[in-house]
Amino acid sequence: MNEVRFRIAISASEFQQYYQGAVDTIIITTAEGKSVQLPVGALLKFVDHSGIRGSFRVLYDNNNKLLRVERLSS
Known about the structure:
Blueprint: E1 2-11, H1 12-19, E2 25-29, E3 35-39, E4 51-60, E5 66-73
Antiparallel strand pairs: 1-4, 2-3, 4-5
């Protein structure tokens, strides 16, 4: 199993374009400086009234298929 860690801070108004379907993927930069593309749907459960903020871990299988996203801290 592979994993990447990243921090993200997107305001509610910025995230609205993702939520409305204008954009269906989000590109994040990991703690190691690697760019990773995620489907917006993988982050929706972490969005609140202020947007999405915090540290996260993304787990992939050996074929780089997304398994899950976990919040590490707010």
